[in-house]
Design a protein that fits this description.
Strand content: 5-15%
Mean pLDDT: 82
Shape: rod-shaped
Structural class: mainly alpha
Number of strands: 3
Low-confidence stretches: 144-157
Helix content: 40-55%
Strand order of the largest sheet: 1-2-3
Order of helices and strands: HHEEE
Length: 157
């Protein structure tokens, strides 16, 4: 009797095991649904990732322009004239690198205009020309400035 009960229990367990084993894995519909959801999430993230990449490239270009401006100024103080080309700055004024490139990956445009003046510019990720602060043709933009108070309105009174 005990032997029959034990055999029945084993048969029941084997049937449950076979049923569970045959259902292992995901159905094709489940896999397609999850893939579609991941695709939608990735599509929503792409613009923000792309925008961050553009901002990073533009910031690097601005830092490179500022570094080159400073190096040109020091070179001009030492030699009395700006360098003929940016390569003249390497080793002594600027660390060795793989070229002076803007945000689009093209070389910065550098020209000496007079004995003490130069033009240095590059393009941002949108393709707009960005001039260095030391360039002869640089024009500061007045953004975020507050107008001077009128004569009869003195601040703090």
């Amino acid at each position: 009797m005990k032997e029959e009960i034990r055999i029945k229990q084993q048969e029941i367990l084997q049937k449950q095991y076979r049923r569970l084993k045959s259902r292992a894995g995901f159905t094709l519909i489940e896999v397609i649904a999850v893939t579609a959801m991941l695709g939608v999430l990735a599509a929503m993230l792409m613009p923000s990732i792309s925008g961050a990449n553009d901002r990073t490239k533009n910031a690097k270009m601005m830092n490179d322009l500022a570094t080159l401006d400073q190096a040109i100024q020091v070179y001009r103080l030492d030699k009395g004239t700006p360098p003929n080309e940016l390569k003249d700055l390497v080793d002594e004024y600027v660390a060795r690198n793989d070229g002076f490139k803007d945000a689009t990956g093209t070389e910065f445009k550098y020209t000496v205009t007079e004995t003490t003046k130069y033009k240095l510019n590059g393009k941002n990720t949108k393709g707009d020309i960005v001039k260095s602060y030391g360039s002869a043709d640089y024009e500061a933009k007045a953004s975020g400035t507050t107008p001077d108070p009128k004569p009869d309105q003195t601040p703090g009174v």
